Amino acid sequence: MTYWLISNSKAGDGKRGRDFWLAALARAGICDPECVDFSNLGWAKQIQPGDVLLVAGGDGSVNTGARLCLDNQATLAVLPSGTANDFARNLNLPEQPDPLCALIAEGKTQKVDVAEYGQNLFLNVAHIGLGTLPVREAEPTEKKLFGRFSYGLQLLRKLNARRGFKAEIRCGEGYASGRWLSIAIACGAFFGGGNEIPEAAANDGLLNVIAVKPRSIPQLLLAFLQVRFNRRVPKSTRTLVRLRGQTSTIHTSRHKTVTADGDEAGTTPLTVNCRPGCLSVIGQTIIRTGRSADGNN
């Protein structure tokens, strides 16, 4: 078995780069992993089944690592170093580097789902509408200064200018149509730097679609707070619609930009399929958030 380390020096505030993680890995007994570069993936052909791919970066970097692991039947180990690190939250990974690297050395693995669209995939969430703006417009300097809160800053700046877009949403047996401010299709249980999707897990075999209707800022804030503190999303309200299923299709009246795991990912129409339990990752457990609609855990 070989340990491979890829590090994104531009992720987060830049403090958790390659040298930072090499030192922590060495303290855990993982010495001299193969250090490789994101810019040229020619080395990926050398990955063997059972190898461990260590990814130091944000969710976009982890996305790349997941594709390589699926292609080569390797195991993904996340070294959270980005702005949001939402996929790492699903795995309940230790925040400090030494316990995390000790967990990697132990080698305990979990199986998680992957969302596929076309030839690509995402682990956390794909956005259409307002939710794409933090990816498309957030400045690198702003992300370094404000971290995950830079996403919220971008949304607040643009909220008043958005009237929404027309779309039809299908997910599982559910259907919704109308004008929407934002549509999110989630594979995991977290997005936007720690916001929870209630009653969700990265290994439940389901996609969660949460669509937000154009409403006033007070109405949107109220809906957000209700979900945040009640830890559940009603099936449908005047502001939110939630659908669940293994497959989801979004058709918009005009082509809309799609972002996935923090990167631009094309335009609508969008069809997403959940591949249950196909990715092996280092982790002690998978977090399941919130509670069911009837209030049970």
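[next item in queue]
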Amino acid sequence: MTQSTPITIIKPSKGWSALNLRDLWNYRELLYFLIWRDIKVLYKQTVIGAAWAILQPLLTMVVFTIFFGKIAKIPSEGIPYPIFSYSGLLIWTYFSSGVSNSGNSLIGSANLITKVYFPRLIIPLSSSLSGVVNYSIAFLILIFMMLYYGFLPNYSIILLPLIVFLAFISATGLGLWLSALNVKYRDVRYVIPFFIQLLLFTTPVIYPVTILPERFRWILSLNPIFGIIDAHRACILGYKPIDWFSFNISTAMTLFIFITGLYFFRRTERFFADVI
């Protein structure tokens, strides 16, 4: 008596289908593989390898310190401008690279999408998660800077994993929207770097939140990464309390963008293999 072979039927979803996040767990090994692939591709055939993860925010910090700290005299909440800007650039670099990489991830994986079935959500997720490695490497420089300038974190440092997770959620949420749109409208890949550049100037990376009038801060807090970057700087350096008002607004916007991005992605993914 022969044993029957299980048959899996793959059907396109209809309408506003369920998220089926359980599929992510079933394909977790593929997620790990794609994350590792993105990391290896990033440093393949490079001379200094993982040091690029440090050089990007470090050199940007040097340029910002010269032009905005020394020449423009932008205030830095009473702390040295180099560590002020670097602590913001650290999480900003992770966020911006996550948005860019996940936004272009489906186009970059066109051959994989058209040849084999797997949850398409894995592709933008792996692109965002791979940036955590760069963040961790670049964080070592911030530790040395804190020792040099004499900064010690306080009890709020326990919130750092939550803040980094929210940055990941924020980058992934925007990436889900952009990657799904990018499949159908190839103009999006040109819009992404311009969008990130504009977003930089509405985010407290090179300037402190206190430079803005209080009555306008809640508007800029609608930027999902606005309150996250300010909280990231505050919880690590411990020189001021976290601005919970801006942080809560940015968290709410982050969750809204992520949840709607998930549903929009699931709503449109059935067309990916045909259009891409």
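[queue empty]
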